[in-house]
Amino acid sequence: MNHADFWVVMFLAVGLKLPLIGLFYVIWKAAKLGDQAHAEQGSTPVSRMALCGYCGARITIGYDAGRVHQRAAGIAARTGQAAFDVETRLVREELALPDRYPVEPTRCPGCGEHTVWAPIEALPDSAAIALEPLRPDLN
Ligand SMILES: [Zn+2]
């Protein structure tokens, strides 16, 4: 093997594989950032409210999984029923409430249009306390 052949072999064996190191590094970094984002997001979903972009009808999407899980565990402990069975029933009950949907419906139940849902946030505690005397008694 002469000198030129040696460098050709080196180029093919090592040089062409250097970009792979960069590629593996990028994939590793992306996976790590993905895990981090997933951890920050929180594991238990909560219900959120949205308004119809056309008529302002309010719907609730999803349910508070943490609260349902706790309730189910409590009922299961008291009655001896299987926890997953109780939880399934509770989730079904939650989603059967009026204006409650597992995912955003494409058509608004209020006006029947293909709509866009505008998410709304619950008030912060300080604002809720300040508004408490003005709130009509709904119960
Ligand atoms: Zn609507």
What features would you describe in this structure?
By secondary structure, this protein is of the alpha+beta class. The chain has a domain of 73 residues. 51% of the residues lie in helices and 11% in strands. It is built from 5 helices and 4 strands. A hairpin with a 5-residue loop joins strand 1 and strand 2. Helix 3 crosses helix 4. The radius of gyration is 27 Å and the shape is elongated.
Rg: 27 Å
Strands across the major sheet, in which order? 3-2-1-4
Indicate the low-confidence ranges by residue numbers: none
The main sheet comes to:
4 strands, mixed
**Helix content bin:** 40-55%
Helix and strand element order: HHEEHHEEH
Q: What integer is the average pLDDT?
A: 87
Shape: elongated
What characteristics describe this protein?
139 residues; binds zinc ion; alpha+beta; 5 helices; elongated; 11% strand
Lay out the secondary structure.
Elements: H1 3-13, H2 18-41, E1 48-52, E2 58-61, H3 65-79, H4 83-96, E3 100-101, E4 117-120, H5 125-131
Bound molecules: zinc ion.
Short description:
With 139 residues, the chain is of the alpha+beta class. The chain has helices at 3-13, 18-41, 65-79, 83-96, 125-131; strands at residues 48-52, 58-61, 100-101, 117-120. The protein has a four-stranded mixed sheet.
